[in-house]
Design the sequence.
């Protein structure tokens, strides 16, 4: 595997992906996306007018072709989500990120999980492998899901899961898994405006160390906290759930995400509703359950670091 410091400025410039603000992992990820685009003969997009960026597609071309989505199922799921958003579902999808930004985690979420939504037997095998004590049978896979955006019953904001899975449990009950998908992100965004409802849910969940609660409101773990609270609020609001889990999914080499997970765990007194998995783990598990070409293509595109020569 190529080490982070082996990606030279000259190599990045050659593929039009030298961005001063990138950390070493982001450099590698951006270069990998540029290589994926070039290998498929896809046109290059622009960072700003007249300045090419190898990790982008031209927006209109990308929107027309859906080239950033890796399977027909992923493209169909993305289009359904957009149609639902336009119809007033409350879902929030950035169309520029979805269609044109090759680094975006939005198309990754659709490309990784949409085919599982079509094949629930495959989804069942995959999720059972990852969480055998929770998952008996997957019954639903959805995207950009919240049970009630801006509802006081939940977190009273617009937080949503990138991927949402419902399943039965080994004891015959019902459960859910809400997944946040990250790729290149360094979790440096400013925290959201704090809401009193956050304090109520945090206390009611009973899984945080009281003396460390103030730290949850700060980056880089504030988003993990808000997503985790959404899962917690669902469990608090409805007794039909036997189990619920919030999962943070990220590439193994994204140290910013890995460090955030470790820091977040330090704030927990009970981690039974929180989980973290790497993108590599999920791809490997899916690949162990099917020999479908899309799994190999997904691995090459998103974690094929050995190709950075």
Sequence:
């Amino acid at each position: 595997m190529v080490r982070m410091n082996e990606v030279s400025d000259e190599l990045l410039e050659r593929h039009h992906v030298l961005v001063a603000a990138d950390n070493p992992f982001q450099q590698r990820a951006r270069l990998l996306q540029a290589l994926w685009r070039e290998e498929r003969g896809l046109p290059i997009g622009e960072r700003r007018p007249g300045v090419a960026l190898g990790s982008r597609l031209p927006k209109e071309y990308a929107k027309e072709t859906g080239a950033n989505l890796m399977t027909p199922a992923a493209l169909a799921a993305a289009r359904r989500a957009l149609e639902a958003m336009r119809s007033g579902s409350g879902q929030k999808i950035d169309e520029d990120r979805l269609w044109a930004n090759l680094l975006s985690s939005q198309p990754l979420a659709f490309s990784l999980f949409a085919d599982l939504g079509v094949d629930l037997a495959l989804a069942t095998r995959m999720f059972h492998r990852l969480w055998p004590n929770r998952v008996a049978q997957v019954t639903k896979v959805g995207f950009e899901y919240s049970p009630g955006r801006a509802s006081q019953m939940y977190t009273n904001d617009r937080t949503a899961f990138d991927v949402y899975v419902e399943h039965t449990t080994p004891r015959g009950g019902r459960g859910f898994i809400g997944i946040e998908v990250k790729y290149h992100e360094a979790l440096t965004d400013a925290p959201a405006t704090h809401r009193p409802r956050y304090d109520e849910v945090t206390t009611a969940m009973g899984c945080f160390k009281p003396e460390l609660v103030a730290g949850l409101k700060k980056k880089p773990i504030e988003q993990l906290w808000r997503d985790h609270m959404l899962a917690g609020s669902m469990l608090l609001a409805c007794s039909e759930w036997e189990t619920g889990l919030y999962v943070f999914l990220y590439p193994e080499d994204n140290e910013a995400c890995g460090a955030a997970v470790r820091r977040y765990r330090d704030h927990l007194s009970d981690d039974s509703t929180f989980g973290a998995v790497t993108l590599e783990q999920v791809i490997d598990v899916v690949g162990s359950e099917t020999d479908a070409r899309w799994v190999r293509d997904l691995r090459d595109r998103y974690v094929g670091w050995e190709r950075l020569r």
User: Anything to note?
Assistant: The radius of gyration is 19 Å. The first helix runs from residue 9 to 14. The chain has a mean pLDDT of 95.
